[in-house]
TrEMBL record, chain A:
Stretches assigned to the Pyruvate flavodoxin/ferredoxin oxidoreductase pyrimidine binding domain: 20-242
Stated name of the protein: 2-oxoacid oxidoreductase (ferredoxin)
Keywords: Coiled coil, Oxidoreductase, Pyruvate
Gene3D superfamilies named among the record's database cross-references: 3.40.50.920, 3.40.50.970
Organism: Saccharolobus caldissimus
CDD domains, per database record: TPP_PYR_PFOR_IOR-alpha_like
Coiled coil residues, start to end: 224-251
Ranges where the Pyruvate:ferredoxin oxidoreductase core domain occurs: 265-365
InterPro entries linked to this entry: PFOR_II, Pyruvate:ferred/Flavod_OxRd, Pyrv_Fd/Flavodoxin_OxRdtase_N, THDP-binding, Transketo_C/PFOR_II
GO biological-process terms attached to the record: response to oxidative stress
Reactions performed catalytically: a 2-oxocarboxylate + 2 oxidized [2Fe-2S]-[ferredoxin] + CoA = an acyl-CoA + 2 reduced [2Fe-2S]-[ferredoxin] + CO2 + H(+)
EC number: 1.2.7.11
Subunit structure: Heterotetramer of one alpha, one beta, one delta and one gamma chain.
SUPFAM superfamilies: Thiamin diphosphate-binding fold (THDP-binding) (SSF52518), TK C-terminal domain-like (SSF52922)
TrEMBL record, chain B:
Catalytic activity: a 2-oxocarboxylate + 2 oxidized [2Fe-2S]-[ferredoxin] + CoA = an acyl-CoA + 2 reduced [2Fe-2S]-[ferredoxin] + CO2 + H(+)
UniProt-recorded name of the protein: 2-oxoacid oxidoreductase (ferredoxin)
InterPro entries the UniProt entry points to: PorB-like, THDP-binding, TPP_enzyme_TPP-bd
Gene Ontology MF annotations: 2-oxobutyrate synthase activity; 2-oxoglutarate synthase activity; pyruvate synthase activity; thiamine pyrophosphate binding
Chain's role: Catalyzes the coenzyme A-dependent oxidative decarboxylation of different 2-oxoacids such as 2-oxoglutarate, pyruvate and 2-oxobutyrate to form their CoA derivatives.
Pfam families noted in UniProt: TPP_enzyme_C
Enzyme Commission no: 1.2.7.11
Keyword Translocase tagged: no
Span of domain Thiamine pyrophosphate enzyme TPP-binding: 73-208
Amino acid sequence: MLQITKRITAMVGNHAVAYAVKQAKPQILAVFPITPQTTMLEKLAEYIDSGQLKAELIKVESEHSAMASIYGAAVAGARVFTATSSQGLLYMTEMFYWAGGQRVPIVAAIATRAIAEPWSIWDDHQDFVSKRDAIWIMTMAENVQDAYDLTIQAFRISEDKRVLLPVMMGFDGFILTHTMERLEVLDDETVDMFLPKRDYNLIDFNDPVNVGPIVTPDNYIKYRYEAKKAMDRAKEVIEEIAKEYEKISGRKQYGLIECYMCEDAEYVFLAMGAWVGDAREAVKRLRSRGNKVGLIKIRTFRPFPKERLVEKLRSVRGVIVFDRAYSFGSGGVLASDVKSALYNSGIDVMSVIAGIGGKTVRPLHFEKVMEEVLEGKRFEERWLYE
Amino acid sequence: MSEIPEYIKNKRVIREQHFYRGNAACPGCPIPKELDLLLEVMGKKTVLVVPASCTTVIMGDERGSPSPVPVVHSPFAGAAAIASGLWRQLRMRGDTDAQVVVWAGDGATGDIGFSALSGAAERNENILYVCYDNEAFMNTGIQRSALTPYGAWTTTTPAGKREFKKPLPFIMMEHKIPYVATASIAYPFDYQEKVKKAKGIQGFRYIHLLSPCPPGWRFDSKYTIEVAKLAVETGVWPLFEVINGEFRLTSVSKTLLEKRKPVIEYLKLQGRFAKLSEEDIKVIQEAVDEMWEYIKQLVKK
C-alpha cells in the first residue's frame, strides 16, 4: 500500500507551476518573459542556477524561438517545458501547430490574458481558446492546486504512447498566477514514480528519418486522421491518469470534467478556469435557498468532453455557459461547443459573456443570472459589462 | 582507349556518395552537390535542420529521403532555434560528438529567420549554420529577398531590385562568433576546407555559400559553376573566413585585392540582369569596389 506523504504549503500560481515543473525534471526549457508569466520564468531560472533542477534554460530571443527550440529538443528525446501568455502565445502560434502536427510531447503553461488591441494585461481566455485547433491537449485549472496537479499530469499524458500529443495547461493570469493559495505538494520520490523517464526520440544516427517532411495530399489527410484518433484516445488516458494521480495524491481528481451538485439539478452553470470557484460559491448560496442548481467545470477543453457532458446533462432543463472568450461573428466559444454537444437534446443552452479583459466577476453575477433563469427568463446570449 | 593508364587511376578521386542522386532538385542546381560535399566532411553523426526552402522539396516526401543523416524540417523562422534545442539535448543525452547543421536558404536566413539566427549567434549555440544563398525566394518562384542583389529581376521586382543585398556575412562577423566564412560551389576544396574548420570549432559557426540558381537567375543549367566562378573572380562574392575575429581572404580572392574582372562579365551571363542600364552597371561596380575597400581595412587589421 502506497504511503501518501503530502506537504502542505502555500504558493502563488506561477511558483506552484514552476515547482511542479522542477519535480517533473525536464531536461530543456525555453521561456521568454511576458506578463503575467514572468515570475514563473524567474523561479525556474532560480531552480536551475541553484542546481535544484538539472536542466538547461535556453534564454531565447522570442516566443517563436522558445517553442522552436524545445521542439528541437523534444524531437531529440528531451522532456521539455515552456510557458507564455497573450501576445506571446500568438507569436508562438506557428510553432504550436508544428509541434501539434508532428505530435511531439511538450508541456506548456499558459497564463491566460486578454489580447491587444487595445492593450490589456488582465485575464480572459481569448489567447487560450485561439489554440483549440492546433492539435494540442488543453486543460484548464480552477485554482493553484489544480495548476500544480495538472502540470504534473500533463507530462504523463503528453508522453503516453497512446497519445503522444503536446499538452497546454491554462490558468488565469493574475487571478491564479499571482494569488497565494493553500497548496498540497507531492514529495519528489512520488513524482519520480508517477513520471518515469521519457523514452521517445526521433533522432537515431543508425536509423535516420526525415522528421516533418512534405507529404502527398493522399497521406496528409491520413496523418490528420491519426491525430484525431490520438485525441479521441486521450480522453480515456486523461481519466485513467487522473485516477492514478488520485491514488498518489489522496485528492479527488476529475480528468475531463467535474460535476458539482448536478445529480438532481434542473439548471447548471458550465465554465472553465478560476471563476469556477465563484460559480461554486453561487451554487452553494442558491442551494441554501432551495434551488436545484449545479455546476459543471470543464477541466479538459481539448479533447472536448462531449460524451461526458451528454451523460451528465441528460436530465437538466438548461445550461448557462459562462465564457471568458468570444468568437466574433459567431458566439461564446465554450457555448458553441456545448451547443454542438447537446444538439437535438432539447436542453436550453444560454450563453453569458463576461470577465473579458479582466472585468470583475463575482459569485453575485452568477447568482443573478441564475435567478432570472429560475424565474423563467430565457436568452441566447448576454454580455455582462455593467 | 580500353584501359585507364595506371598513373591516372591513382590520381582519380573516387568518392563515396554522401547525398543521394535521384532527388528532386532542378537540373543544374548546385544544392545536392553542396550537401554532398558538406556531409562528406561532417560525417554520419550529423543532423540537418532545414527550414522551408528548395531543400524542403529536395529532401523528398515521407516515402524516402536522399539524405543519409537525420533531417528535421522547420517552418521558415524556426530553424536556428530548433537547432539550438536539438544540440542541447544531444549533448544532454551524451551524443557530444554529434553535429547540428542548419541548412537554410537566403530568405530563411536574412529575412524571416534573421531574429532566430541572430539570437542563436548571440547565445553562441554549438551549431553550424549554412546559408545556401540563391538570392531570392526560389522555392515559391523567384520573389525578391533581402539578399537579392541590386538591379536583379525577380517576379516581385519586375523592373529590377532598387535596394542592395543585405551584407549578411559581415553582419554575422559583427556578432563576434568563433567562425564566419563565405564559400562558392565553384571552389569545392575551399568550401570543404571551411566546413572542416567549422566542424573542429565549438560554438556558433556560420558559412555563407553562394548558390547560383539556373531558373531563378535565368542562365542555362550548364553554366552553374561558370557563374559561381565569375561571381568570385569579379569580386561580387569574396571568399574569406573570420576565425575568432581574425579576417583573411581565401583561395583566389587573395589575389583580387587590387585587380578584379569587371562585374559585367558576371552580370551578362544571367537573364535576371538583362535589362540593366549602363548607370545600373556602374552602380554595381562601384558597390563592389567599395566593398573591397572595406575588405582592405579588414585585411590590414
